[in-house]
Amino acid sequence: MSEVCTRNLERLVDLTREMLALADEGDRDRIDPHCGIIYGILRDGAYRLRKMAEEEVSRHEQGGGGQDGG
C-alpha cells in the first residue's frame, strides 16, 4: 500500500512541475494583470503541494506512514 501511495505522491510532484510551467507560460503570455493573479495563485499552489508531497514521500522512505497506511 505504501508503495502505491508513494508513487501517487511522486506523480503529484510531477504534476506540480507542469503547473509551474503553465504558470510561467501563462504569465508570459497574459494580456492583463487579472490573469497574472490567477497564474500567481497556480504557482503558489504548486510550490505548496510540491513541498507537502516531498515531505510525505520522505516520511514514507523513513518508514513512517501513519495509522491509515499512507
Q: What topology emerges from the helices and strands here?
A:
Elements: H1 2-29, H2 33-61
Helix pairs in contact: 1-2
DSSP, total strands? 0
Helix vs. strand class: mainly alpha
The amount of helix comes to over 70%
- End-to-end Cα distance, whole Å, is 7 Å
Q: Please state the overall shape, judged from the principal axes of the Cα atoms.
A: elongated
Strand content: under 5%
Could you give a quick summary of the protein structure above?
The protein has helices spanning 2-29, 33-61. By secondary structure, it is an all-alpha fold.
How would you sum up this structure, described in words?
The protein has 70 residues and is an all-alpha fold. It has one domain. The chain is 81% helix and 0% strand. The chain has helices at residues 2-29, 33-61. Helix 1 runs antiparallel to helix 2 (33-61).
Question: What distinguishing features does this structure have?
Answer:
single chain, 70 residues, mainly alpha, 0% strand, elongated
